[in-house]
## 1
Amino acid sequence: MEIVAGVHQLKIPFPEGISGDTNVYVVEGSEGSILVDTGWDSPDGLMAFIRGLEWDRLKLSDIQQIVVTHIHPDHYGLAGKVKELCGAKIAMHKLEGELINLRYVNFEELLRKVEVELASYGVPIGELSGFAKASLWLREFVSPELPEVVLDEGDEISNGAFNFEVLYTPGHSPGHICLREPTKGLLFCGDLVLHNSFPHVGLHPQSGDNPLGDYLDSLKKVQNRSTNFVFPGHGPVFNGLKLRIEDIVRHREQRNMDIINALNGDLKTIYQVATEIPWKVEAGGVAFEDLGIWDKRLAVRETAAHIRLLALQDRIGKIDKYGVSLFLVKD
C-alpha cells in the first residue's frame, strides 16, 4: 500500500513454516525509485515482491537503488535477485559489506568461532554443535551480493523527490543504518526500533565488542529528531518515536536487573543466567526450556550482550576458568 505520497510498503513473508514478514519500502522519485530492504530470497518472497509491485502499479525497472539497512537474511536475502532483475545498485554500510563473505559464502571459519564463543558462554557440550549450526539454514534464503555503493554516517541518497541522510545506527548489527528524510520527517529504521516487539541485540563474533552499548547510543541518536512517521522493518508504521524508544530503554534496564537478580551472589555462566530469566516478554513470557534451539541461541547471545555492558559498567565481575567465563555481581 501507499503509506504516504510516494512511499509504498510491501510485506514479504518469511519462508514457509516461519511466521512473520518483512516490511519492504519502495520510494518513488523523478530519478527512479529507491528500494529499502528486500526480504528473504524464497519463492514465496520473490512472488510477493513482484505481486506487490504490480498491485501498487510500480515498475521493477524504475528501481535504481537498493538500500540495505543490514545484512540479516530477512532484509538482505533478495537483494541479489532484485539486482539481477532490474540492474539496480546495492548500497549498504561499509561494515555490513565486509561481513558478507564470512557469513554467507566462506562461513567455515565463522562457524568455528561461534562454537568457541558458545563454549565460553557455558553452553553444555551435548548442545554445543546444535547451537553452533542453528543458523546454517538461513544461508538457503540469501543470494549474497556485494554492494556497489558503501555508505556511512552523513552520506546522502536522493531520487529527486526524497533526499535522505544516512544515520549510522549500530547495535542490532554492526553496520546497521537508518534513512532519514528531514524535510518530510520520515525515518526508515530497519530493526533499530519496532513498534510491537523488542529488537534483538546479541554478542557474537560479528557483533562488535559492545553491541548493546552501541544500540543504546543509536537510540539516543534518533530519539529527539523530528519525525512524523517511522517505517520499521517489521510491524506497523507508527509515530511517537520518542515514547517507543523510552519503552525499549526501560525493557533493557529491566533485563539488566533480571540478570543481576539471576546472579544473586553466585558465580554463573552466561548460559546459566539465560536459563533463569523470561524470554519473549512482549508475548507474555516464555521459559528458556520452552524455546526452540534457534531462539535459545538468540537468548544466550542477548544475555551475553547485557553481561558485556554490565561488566564494562563495572557492575559485575568475570572469572575465566578452563575456557568458560563465570560472572558475579560486584558489591
## 2
Amino acid sequence: MSRLVHVGAVIADVVMDVPHLPEHGGDVLATTSTITAGGGFNVLTAAARDGVDVLWAGLRGTGPFGDVVAAGLAAEGVRAALDPLPDQDSGYCVVLVDGSGERTFVTSFGAETHLDADHLASVALRPDDLVYLSGYTLAVPASASLVGWVEQLPASARLVLDPASLVADLDPGLLERVLRRTWLLSLNAREARVLTGASDPGDASAALLGRIAGGGAVVLRDGASGTHVRDASGLRHHAAHPVDAVDTTGAGDAHTGVAMAGLARGLGLDDAVRRANVAAAIAVTRRGPATSPVASVIDAALATRQDEAQPSPEENP
C-alpha cells in the first residue's frame, strides 16, 4: 500500500449554520456554531478513515487555532512531518452554511503560508508516495519555492493536484508548471470552467488532460450530476450516489481523499472514483466539514450499487 503525503494548509474552521446569507450590509443570527480543524484536514481525514497511511507535510501555528489543528490531527491519527512555528497562529475559515445546505467561505491565512521548499526538504519521500497539493498551498507567498520543490519530486512520486476554489487567483505561470508535473488532476466543474473556459465536462476534461503529465488523468466532480473521468482511454461518467444533502461542506475533499486512498491501495481509477462518489454522497448527509465516512460504511453503501462507468456520448458509436 502506498502512503499519502499531504502538502497543504490545515487551518481552523469556524462553521455557522444560518437560515440564509445576509444581504449587503445586513446581519443574520447563526442557529449553531462550531470550531474544528478544516481546510486540508478534510482531505486528510477522508483518506485516513478509508485506511491509508497519511503524513501531513504542512505548517501550523502555536496559538488557539493551531491548537485546534493539532487536536484534530491527533484525533484522526495523522502524523505531522514538521514542527509548529513559534509566535505564529494557524489561519481560520468562516464557513456559512445556509438553509439549502450550500456553503460560503471567508478565509484568513496564518502560519501555513510560511511553508516553502526548505521546510519540505526535510520530508523524506518514499518511491511510491502519492503527493497531494492544493491550490490553497500555491496561493502562499512562497509558492514559487514550492513549485520548484514539485518539479524536483522523484519521478516515481505521483502528484495529485486539486486547484481549489481560488484557482482564478493563482499565478498562471506557476500553475502551468505544476500541471505539467501532475499525475492526477481532481477538480470540480466550476474550477474546470475557470481553467478552460469550457462548460461541457467532456470539452473541459479533454483540454485539461493535454496540460498535465503524459499518462495522467482528470477527475471532474460535478455534484449531483456525478463525476467525469478522462485519461488516455477516453471519457467515462460515474453517476452520483443519490442522497438528500444537508451540508455540502467538504464534499469535494471527501471525494478527493477517498479517491486517493483507493489509488494508494491499488484500485484502478474508475473503481477509486466510484468509491469516492459514495463517500462524498454520505458526507453531505452529515453536518460539518470533516464528515467523510470510515471504510466499512463506504463498503456497505457500495454493496447496494450495481452501476458501472458509462462512456460519454462522444465515445459511443
## 3
Amino acid sequence: MTLDELVVKIVEVKGSYYQIGLSQGSQLGELIDNHLINTNFDHQSAKEKMETFAPYLLDELKGLSESLSLPLEVLLEQCSGYNVDFPVMGCTTFVQDHCYIRNYDFAPELYDARLVFCQPENGYASVGFSQQIMGRLDGMNEKGLVVGLHFVNQAYKKEGFLATSIVRMVLESCRSTEEAIQLIMKVPHRYCYNFSVTDRMGKSAVIEATPEKQMANFSQPLLCTNHFEIEDLKSKNRNEMIGSINRKKYLFNLANQNLSINELFKVFNTEKSPLFFHNYKEYFGTLHTVAYSPADLKVMVGVGQNSDPYIFSFEDWKKGALKLPSFLKGVIQLRENK
C-alpha cells in the first residue's frame, strides 16, 4: 500500500465581495484546473441568474476576474456553478446532539483542497471547503447554520446551479434551517442533490432537491447519504444505490451508541470505517472529515485518513483572536504497490 500526501490550504478573506474576489485571485495566481465540462455555456444566462439569486457572488467573480486578468465570461463558466456538468460523488452526514459530522468523498484532482474563512462586509461570515473557488462543499456560518451537499443523480438535469453554489448562497444569507429551506426551494437546480442542514437551535432537515421539485424531510437524528427517501422523489434515485442505503443503516446504528464527538470523528475518519472510502479513481474516495458544532461554533477538521484533527473556534477567528496555520496535511491511499 502506498500513501499519498494531501494538502489543504487555509484561506482567509475579508472585505467587500469584490475585495474577496481580488484577494483570492492574488493568492491563487491562476484558476484551479478542475477539468469540469461546460457544454454550450450561455454566459448571458449565467450572469442574469447570478444577478437575480446571488448578485454578491457575481461581485466576487468580478474581483477574481480583475485579479487573474481573465474575462468575466471565463470566470462565469469556470466558477459560477451554473449549468456545469459534474461527475458522481458521495458524502455521508450524521447530526445528533448539536453536532454535524461529515465525510466528503470525491477525487483529489477535482478537489480545490481549500478551507476558506470568509468574512464579507454584507453577508454572514463562514468557514467551509471550497469547490470551483466560489462554491462550497460544506460549511458553517457565524449564526451557527451548517449545510452540506450530497449528490443523488445526474441523469435528470436542467438549467440551474450546482449544489456547491447553492451551499455558498445559504451560508452567506441564512440564519436558520427554515431560511435555508426557503432559499433552496427558490433557486434553480442543475441536478438531483440532498442538502443536509442544521442550526444553532438544533433544528435539522434534509432537503431532497430535483430540478423540478424540492421537499424537506425533518429528522432527529439527521442521517443523510446519497439517495432520496421522500416517496414523491424516489423515482429520481439512481438504479444502483445499495452503498448509500448501507451507509444509512450504519448511521442508524451509530445513533443508538451515544458516542462523543471525538468518538464519532474516529468512526468517520479511520481508514477501515464503513464510512471511509479509497475509490479515488472512481470519484468516491474520502478527502476530508469535518465536524461542525453550531452551539459554540467549534470546528474539527481531518484531512485524509486516520487524521490528527485540527480543532478551532470560529468565534475566536471572527474576533481576530485565532492565528490559523497555512495548511493542513493528511494522507490518502491512491494506489497499491506493484
## 4
Amino acid sequence: MENQSVSGQFAAGREFILRQARLLERRLFAACFEGAPATGVVDALRGFRNDDGGFGHSLEPDTRCPASLPIYVEVALQALATVNTVDRALVLGACDYLAKVATTAGCGGAVPPAFPVIEAYPRAVHWAEGTYVPGLNPTAGLVGLLNQLGVEHPWVDQATAYCWSQLDLPELPLEAHLLHGVLVFLENVPDNERSSAAAARVVESLAKASSWREDPDDADYGLTPLSMAPMADSRWRALFTEDVLAAHLDRLLRDQQADGGWPLTWDPPSEAAVLEWRGIVTLGALRTLVSYGRLKRDG
C-alpha cells in the first residue's frame, strides 16, 4: 500500500468492509464514520441473541457455536460501547444470563469465556479446556464494559467485588488478553486512585505476559500497546511512551493489504471466519488510525 495516500487507504479499508465484512461490522462502520444511527448496530446484534438472554451464533468468529457464551456477550457489549448506545432490555437480559452462569460456576461472580458445548462445533485450536475456567478473563472486561455503558445490575456489583479480590492478590496472571480485560475494568470502575495504582501493576506484568507483543517488528500473534490504548483519548495511552505508540501506528498503517483489509496472525476455523475476523480487524485498524490522526476519512 506504499503508493496510496492516507485518504486512499481509508477508502480502501471502507471498500473491504463493504465487500467482505459481516452485517454487524458494516453497521458499526456506518455508525462510526458515516453518521448512521446506532440503532442499526443494536438491530444487527439481535440476530445473535438467544432466548436465555445471552448471545451465540459465532458472534466471536473463532467459535462456530450457536449456544450462548460469556465471550459472545463481551463481543456484543464491545459493539454497543463502540457506538455508545444501550438497549436496556437487551443488555439487562444479558446480565441476567451472566448472573445465572456465575451462580452455576460458584466462583464469587466470575464467569468463564466458554463451555464444553463448543466442542460439538468447529472452532479454532486455542478454544480448548482452559477457556472453561471462570476468572478475570472475561469477567473483568464484561464488568468494565457494563460500567462504561452505565448499566446497573446485581451481577455487576458481585463481579466487581470478585475482580478487586483478584487484583488485590500479590501477583497478577501473566496473560495479555486477561490483562487487557483488567484494563477495561480499571478504566471504567469509579475508584480512579485505586484503578490507577492497579493499572501500573498491569503494565509491569505485561512485560512478562504471554501473547504480548511490544516490539512492532514482531510478526507473531499478540496484543500490542494499541490494543490497550486503541483510541487517541484512551486513558491508558499514558502507560506507554509516544515513541512506542508511534512505532506501532507505523506498523499498523503499513500492514494494510492490497485488498484494503488488514491481515490476521492466527488461524480461524474456516474461510468464512477468516473474512469475518478480517472485517473486525479492519474496522478496528481504521478506527485507531483515524483517531490517532494517521488516516484521513475523506478518501
